[in-house]
Amino acid sequence: MKDYHGGKPIYIYRHAHDGQMRIIPCRLSLMSISDFDEAIRLHKKVSMDLGPEVFVPTSHEELAMLLGGKGVSIGVWHEDRLISMRAVQTDGEWVNESLVKMGLLPDPQMKTAVTDHCVVDKEYRGNNIQFLSGYEMESIVAEKFSVIATTVAPTNIFSLKNVLLCNFHIVGLDLHYGGYLRYTMLKRFGAEESIWTDAHRAIPISDIKEQQRAIAEGMAGYKLKRIPAGFAVFYAPWSINPTTTAEGG
Known about the structure:
It contains 6 helices and 12 strands. The strands form 2 sheets. It has an 8-stranded mixed beta sheet with strand order 1-2-3-4-5-6-8-7, with helices on both faces. Strands 9, 10, 11 and 12 form a 4-stranded antiparallel beta sheet that branches. The radius of gyration is 18 Å and the shape is globular. It has helices at 36-49, 60-67, 92-101, 129-141, 157-165, 208-216; strands at residues 8-15, 21-30, 71-78, 81-89, 112-120, 147-152, 169-176, 180-188, 194-195, 201-204, 219-227, 230-239.
């Protein structure tokens, strides 16, 4: 069995197939290339439950890059099994390629990191692991980078809600990954820009064109709220002052 001493202990629920739910001890730790096989196993298991309109799995080649020095990866382990993995691209060339694919400009200062994925085994969902690993990752990434970028499918309400709760802002909405709709989202550490919520606009999540229009006007999505017809995304001006619109990606 692998030695996970040095990781942070966390205690979470596991949902058994027979309906049993009990708290188990797990560990949260940095991952390395030695964890490659477990990363592949978890990705394969998660992708079986989710279609590409929700989740496009990371390739084996890119997993090796993330674990081999071109990214930072955090894993949550139950005994010797990986139950959750969050990975961020940090290699400048790779990050800039990803930013362009997301509809953003490259970052010549190399101060942007890109969230590659966050996956959780379905037996351990409902423990806010995405939330916990997100802040753990930020404590590492913020030492060198000032922005994290990510994409989330509008149909993946659980992940979208989590990312917004971690204070990311929606700055784009378009087709990516071969034709699948994705939000482009940013979190700026210590940004001068503010969200001016007094001027917010609530737009149904199903109204793609209206959301794209709001983004084009310099607004950013910052909140998700349930409405009778489903969900609405709150958009508001994103700028240094209410009359100065920031670049929205």
